[in-house]
Amino acid sequence: MLLEGVRLVADGLASGLAFEAIVYDEATLEATAAGRALYRLLLRDPCALPASPRAVGHAADTVQPQGVVGLARWPAPPPGTAGVTLVLDELQDPGNAGTLLRSAEAAGAVQVLATRGSVDLYAPKVVRAAMGAHARLALAQDLTWSDIVDRLLGVPLLVADALAATPYYAVSWLAAPALIIGNEARGISAAARRHATGTVMIPMLGGESLNAAVAGSVMLFEAARQRAVSAGAGSERTP
Predict the structure, then answer these.
(1) Residue 17 belongs to what domain range?
(2) What's the CA gap between 19 and 119, in Å, rounded?
(3) What is the pLDDT of residues 142-181, one digit of tens each?
């Protein structure tokens, strides 16, 4: 996958990603403190090659590159042991997908599964929006619903649906359910609804709906809040 920019490449190096190659423009990196720190690391990296600004620009996916682009093998961190699984059901916007990956990591999700028809989780725009989550979050994509049901055998499957009756804060997220976020325009697929065991919504005081990434993030952090409260209550009961 392509990692572009000082922060992403530095985070990838710190996370132990296996880089195939990194190209960088010394002058551009020297212009910032973070760039200078990364430049010192790249001088010792056998995969890092100095290049002209034009060459770095050709390798980059953005209009104004930050002077460094890296090509890394897909990481394969294992799933976590406790927490919510996030399921992307034909979600197609790269920014939404990357934001949800970033929120999933921050909220302690155990893994993210994406159905066929979803955006490529390793596309450059998704990687940039996820801001390093790929290196630490278990991901699987191009899955059928049969694949997902097999992976989540016995796990409650909750669909995020604006028309649902149950608010997200009334759900017990301690049961470690899977949260399903649907397509931005069409919503949840018919296959997802067939397999869902419940629906959940976010009460709103105005407007028709929330952005998919915002809605998913709100629910993921409610799950994290409930786990934190439960852990705190448990520690208080411990002699």
Answers:
(1) 2-72
(2) 23
(3) 999 999 999 999 999 999 999 999 999 999 999 999 999 9
Residues 90 and 187 in one domain: yes
Torsion of CA 112, 151, 157, 133, to 10 degrees: -10
Between the CA of residue 75 and those of 1, 78, 101, 231, what are the distances in Å?
9, 10, 14, 30
Are the beta carbons of 1 and 72 closer than 8 angstroms?
Answer: yes
The pLDDT, as a whole number, for residue 81 is 86
H or E element in which residue 28 lies: helix 26-29
The pTM (predicted TM-score) of the whole model is 0.92
Q: Which residues lie below 8 Å from residue 169, measured CB to CB, with a gap of 6+?
A: 222
Residue 68, token pair as written in the block: 């460094």
In which band, very low, low, confident or very high, does the pLDDT at 237 lie, cut at 50, 70 and 90? Answer: very low
How far apart (Å, rounded) are the C-alpha atoms in residues 207 and 200? Answer: 18
The CB density around residue 237, as the number of other CB atoms within 10 Å, is 6
Residues 121 and 24 in one domain: no
Residue 114: helix, strand or coil by DSSP? strand
One domain for residues 160 and 62: no
Q: What is the CATH number of the domain that holds 221?
A: 3.40.1280.10
Within 92-227, strands assigned E span: 111-115, 139-143, 157-160, 178-181, 198-200
